[in-house]
Amino acid sequence: MAHVPGLWASSRNHSFRRMNELPPAGVEETDFKAGFCAIIGLPNVGKSTILNRLIGERLSIVTAKAQTTRQRLLGIYSDESHQSVFVDTPGLLKPRYALHESMQAEAERATLDADVLLYVVDLGWKASLDHAREFDVPARIPSVLCLNKMDRASKEDVAAAEASLAGSGNWRHVVRTEATMGTGTELLLRSILDLLPASPPLYPVDEIATAPLRFFAAELIRETCFEELAQEVPYATAVGIEAFREEADPVYIDARIYVERESQKGIVIGRGGAMIKKIGSQARVKIERLMERPVYLDLRVKVMPNWRRRPGSLKLFGYDLPPGSR
Ligand SMILES: Nc1nc2c(ncn2[C@@H]2O[C@H](COP(=O)(O)OP(=O)(O)OP(=O)(O)O)[C@@H](O)[C@H]2O)c(=O)[nH]1
Ligand SMILES: [Mg+2]
């Protein structure tokens, strides 16, 4: 998604603010609708792409690989009479290790806290359609079904999927989208806003994100790892920010890519350091675009054996511990 120059700014508390939509004067609080909308679905169906479209900014990292998102990420949409706090979540899967358990707990928590649920399907992926059919739409939470990637199915297949799914669950709206192009996302946004409960805004209406800049910097480095590394290696990567000096010029960032084994470290470094150089320069450009300032990125690789299976390591990288672990 294209970056819109001038829309981003980092405030003193590091939250992102939308500069062109200030609180409307004279709106009665009782007219206002606000709440949390959790975006859930199987891995890789387009949840993060949809969040970015709904917010109009590239907040959540997106890659062609499944299991890109590991944590809940809040993106806030506000207009004169609504505020929807969208919560991107990791794709639903059967956990194989502690990181997976943490990811599933994140999705569960987001669902429990939701005022509206947005369940996303990939129309070109049968397993995702089957999952939607079996999904237990919670009676308590108004839910919207998003049929995404409509470009990956024929018109007839889209219509058939829509007809069978619309009747299978208690969906308040069913909306077709092609999130990469922004097709249908405006309608999707309207359907969600319509379902929000009456409430004053939950966050300042000029804010679009709550996570600190250093979180987004780490995510952009991780996104680049997912783009550049193959097979199991991206899944074994985590990014730690050792130093983040926003006051320096250029901004100084000292970051580590953690992997689980020496052999993976060799792959991330690459022949003569070529891979780490490539990841570093691409990630730096992305962070510069985000911060609209020159950045010096010091990037190194470190081995932390089995970090995905160890609650202590998960905690170190800011991943919530799976329920039941100490
Ligand atoms: N063809 C097509 N591709 C799409 C569409 N929406 C998203 N994608 C692509 O699908 C891939 C996954 O998108 P994400 O937004 O990362 O999916 P996700 O559901 O957040 O994935 P996880 O975080 O891994 O659970 C990316 O390559 C997107 O560009 C769409 O409407 N059509
Ligand atoms: Mg995602």
Set down the secondary structure blueprint.
Elements (H helix, E strand, L loop, with lengths): L15 E2 L15 E9 L5 H9 L17 E6 L3 E7 L9 H15 L3 E7 L3 H9 L8 E6 L6 H14 L4 E4 L8 H11 L11 E3 L3 H16 L9 E8 L5 E9 L2 H8 L4 H18 L3 E9 L7 H6 L10
Parallel strand pairs: 2-4, 2-5, 5-6, 6-7, 10-11
Antiparallel strand pairs: 1-8, 3-4, 9-10
Helix pairs in contact: 3-4, 6-8
Q: Would you mind describing this structure in some detail?
A:
The structure is a single chain. The protein has 326 residues and is an alpha/beta fold. It is built from 9 helices and 11 strands. Magnesium ion (MG) binds next to helix 1. The site of guanosine-5'-triphosphate has 23 residues, from helix 1.
What are the key terms here?
21% strand; binds magnesium ion; 326 residues; 11 strands; alpha/beta; binds guanosine-5'-triphosphate; GMP Synthetase, Chain A, domain 3; three-stranded mixed sheet; single chain; six-stranded mixed sheet; Rossmann fold; globular
Provide the residue-averaged pLDDT. Answer: 91
CATH topology of the largest domain: Rossmann fold
By CATH, the architecture of the largest domain is named: 3-Layer(aba) Sandwich
- Morphology: globular
Q: What is bound: which ligands?
A: guanosine-5'-triphosphate, magnesium ion
At the first level of CATH, the class of the largest domain is Alpha Beta
Distance between the termini: 40 Å
* H/E topology pattern: EEHEEHEHEHEHEHEEHHEH
CATH superfamily of the largest domain: P-loop containing nucleotide triphosphate hydrolases
Arrangement of strands in the largest sheet: 3-4-2-5-6-7
Q: How large a portion of the residues is in β-strands, by DSSP E?
A: 15-25%
Which radius of gyration do the C-alpha atoms yield? 20 Å
DSSP helical segment count: 9
Secondary structure: helix percent = 25-40%
Main β sheet profile: 6 strands, mixed
- Poorly predicted runs of 5 or more residues: 1-15, 17-23
